[in-house]
Amino acid sequence: MTSESFLSVENATRRFAGLVAVDTVTFRVERGEILSMIGPNGAGKTTMFNLITGQLSLSGGAIVFGGEQIGKLPPHVRAQRGMGRTFQIAKPFIGLTTRENVMVGAFRRNRRFTDAFDRANAVLAEVGLEARADASASELTLSERRRLEIARALALSPELILLDEVMAGLNATEVTEVIDLIQRLNDRGMTFLVIEHNLKVVRAVSRRVIVLDHGVKIAEGTATEVLSDPKVVKAYLGKRAE
Ligand SMILES: Nc1ncnc2c1ncn2[C@@H]1O[C@H](COP(=O)(O)OP(=O)(O)OP(=O)(O)O)[C@@H](O)[C@H]1O
Ligand SMILES: [Mg+2]
């Protein structure tokens, strides 16, 4: 290993009562890459995200980000260190406008109203929501809500963004738009860790993929490698047969 990893997850473990939702999982994310995390329902993907961003505490193991042990820091401090995320169940403030939703995030970094306003506008333009800035968040379509989630993450100028199934429920055109957005941000240096069920998306965006099943990392490699791995095929087919 010539250089230190950007994000390093080392034997991360999370127990819920009798269940080991994430079981000694180790992987690295390199600066500038798009790494996909796949696996059947209940594999522990969202739990893994929650361990990385601090919504859940580790039962064991460590998380190193930018050379620093962050496994015990609260979520807002990890966000200040440069981690942004979306949630599988988007929870915008529905009483606020689209722009105000983004400003809530931007305020955490910059207390001046005009700066937060400008930052929100810039981020909304980035995700293609500038025309919806004054609309109530409750009026947004599913696809717009997903892009708002990404905008809220971007508002804090993160270096790493974790996307939890941002494509779910989108049509083919909308999926293409979000892929383009991710690739554009990645071209400018943003690093991504992406949970995705749509394997076409996984193939399109990621060079490297890790696979979780029952909390355990069962495969790691290129999309083509892991998707042809019998262990991975069995994990998915086994789930379908249940
Ligand atoms: N707060 C919690 N309390 C108890 N069990 C939990 C909790 N959160 C998750 N689990 C359990 O941990 C396991 C992993 O859940 P998780 O949500 O991480 O899976 P996932 O891979 O994200 O699944 P999906 O693809 O359906 O989103 C599941 O068995 C789930 O029921
Ligand atoms: Mg999940």
Give short descriptive properties of this protein.
single chain; 242 residues; alpha/beta; Rossmann fold; six-stranded mixed β-sheet; 24% strand; binds adenosine-5'-triphosphate
Q: Can you characterise this structure?
A:
The chain has about 240 residues and is of the alpha/beta class. The protein has a single domain (about 5-240), classed as P-loop containing nucleotide triphosphate hydrolases (Rossmann fold). The protein is built from nine helices and ten strands. The protein has helices at about 45-55, 75-80, 100-110, 115-125, 140-155, 170-185, 200-205, 225, 230-240; strands at about 5-15, 20-30, 35-40, 60-65, 70, 85, 160-165, 190-195, 210-215, 215-220. Strands 6-7-8-3-9-10 form a six-stranded mixed β-sheet, sandwiched between helices. Strands 2-1-4-5 form a four-stranded antiparallel β-sheet, covered by helices on one side. A hairpin with a 2-residue loop joins strand 9 (about 210-215) and strand 10 (about 215-220). The longest helix is centred in the last third of the chain and has 16 residues, at about 170-185. The radius of gyration is 18 Å and the shape is globular. The protein starts with 6 loop residues before the first strand and ends with a helix. The model has no long low-confidence stretch (mean pLDDT about 90).
Summed over residues and divided by their number, the pLDDT gives a mean of: 92
Radius of gyration: 18 Å
Question: Which sequence of SSEs, written as H and E, runs from N to C?
Answer: EEEHEEHEHHHEHEHEEHH
In CATH terms, the superfamily is: P-loop containing nucleotide triphosphate hydrolases
Which structural class do the helices and strands define? alpha/beta
Describe the main β-sheet briefly. Answer: 6 strands, mixed
- Count of spatially separate domains: 1
Give the fraction of residues assigned to helices.
25-40%
> If classified by CATH, what would the architecture be?
3-Layer(aba) Sandwich
